[in-house]
Amino acid sequence: MILEKPFLTFILPCLFLATGLIIASFQVSPQYHQKTQNALFNPVGTIISNDGRVELSRFHTTYSSRLPQGHPLEISLYNFDKVQTHLGSKTVVSFLDGYEIEFSPKSLFIVEQWNPQENQGPIYINLVNGDYRVLKKGEAGSVFIVKNSMVFAPNHKPEKKRRILFVNAQTEFTHQIPSPPQSQPEPSMSAANTESSPSSLIQTLSNQYIDETIAKNRDQLVKCQTHAIRQNKKSKGQLLIGISIESRGKMKDVQILASDIQNEELLSCVKTVLERTHFRAFQGAEIIRSYPLVFE
């Protein structure tokens, strides 16, 4: 087929333009993810120094990057950012209320603000691996370390306990084949309409209510662990789960932020159970927080 010259004159620039747009979309993707995260939350801390290989990844995105080395740096950290230092590497993080903390080689931690929607409340550093030392003390009660199911101030003085869901199938082990997790019944249309009316909606969900609602999944989580025991697979360990809740009261996302359980089937079962959790509808912004879970 022979193409007329006017047609070629029209189509070729269009093809070049389309190709350029596709290439540009790949180039700006990390910046887009970062701007999306920045729009949702304010910074909770700043990386001011890196020595060696340090990596950063962001919750809710595919953004992951090896960070530059040196001092001084100014790399903002946002809610649920995950930072990992490799062998022979370390990083220093400065927090808004004065704390400066250095994380040792082979550390993995996730920063979390207790009430990011209002930019209030303490910062929790979920330290999955590694160690740290305090370079500069800040305001008391502004930063806590979460490690080995304990919550304490960075100077190692215990402050308070965080609610943690403990699951132990051994005490409830039976010879029955565990049934798959059952979803909670969907609310009726009339009930949904009642919940969604502005006069009946609360502004947001309290942390206590979220904890209590998630704890109602204990029986289903026991079934997940029981199934793992029957298969002689790993069934004990700790998880840190990241959840996001939509204003209509449904789980938007569930992620395993960290785990020492080498059993993908068990982790998948946990995600399935939590994804089916229903909460009250509310008016405020999407709720994002973490939840510690221990299989004994």
Account of the protein in words:
The protein is α+β, with helices and mostly antiparallel strands and 296 residues long. It is built from 6 helices and 16 strands. The protein has helices spanning 5-27, 29-40, 189-196, 207-215, 218-230, 264-275, and strands at 45-51, 54-57, 64-66, 75-77, 82-85, 90-95, 100-103, 108-115, 120-129, 132-136, 143-147, 150-152, 165-167, 237-245, 251-259, 287-295. Helix 5 (218-230) packs antiparallel against helix 6. The radius of gyration is 23 Å and the shape is globular. It starts with a helix and ends with a strand.
Summarize the helices and strands and which ones pair or pack.
Elements: H1 5-27, H2 29-40, E1 45-51, E2 54-57, E3 64-66, E4 75-77, E5 82-85, E6 90-95, E7 100-103, E8 108-115, E9 120-129, E10 132-136, E11 143-147, E12 150-152, E13 165-167, H3 189-196, H4 207-215, H5 218-230, E14 237-245, E15 251-259, H6 264-275, E16 287-295
Parallel strand pairs: 9-11, 13-16
Antiparallel strand pairs: 1-4, 1-6, 2-3, 2-5, 5-8, 6-7, 7-10, 8-9, 11-12, 14-15, 14-16
Task: Please give a handful of descriptors for the protein shown.
296 residues, alpha+beta, Fusion Protein Consisting Of Minor Coat Protein, Glycine Rich Linker, Tola, And A His Tag, Chain: A, Domain 2, 2 domains, seven-stranded mixed beta sheet, five-stranded antiparallel beta sheet, 6 helices, 16 strands, 26% helix, globular
